[in-house]
Design goal:
This protein is α/β, with parallel strands linked by helices. The protein has two helices and three strands, in the order βαβαβ.
Length: about 70
């Protein structure tokens, strides 16, 4: 899919484990938005999944995939 066909929008996915990772990959593949954030209390897991998704989706330069951290003590 050419980048000019992407819809603009943001998605936040709670949980960076298997389901969250699969959903992130699917969103990036179909181009439903231009920013995807993975939200997880385990910061290292979220960072690792974001790095992995960036490697799996190198042809999607218009999509920003980033990690967010939840302070589980709050």
């Amino acid at each position: 899919m050419d980048s000019k066909h992407y819809r603009t929008g943001k998605a936040m996915i709670a949980g960076a484990d298997a389901v969250g990772s699969a959903f992130t990959y699917a969103l990036a593949q179909v181009g439903l938005g231009d920013e995807i954030a993975l939200l997880d209390a385990r910061h290292e897991l979220a960072v690792g999944q974001v790095r992995h998704e960036r490697r799996k989706n190198p042809g999607k330069p218009d999509i920003s995939i980033r990690e967010e951290f939840i302070d589980s003590e709050s």
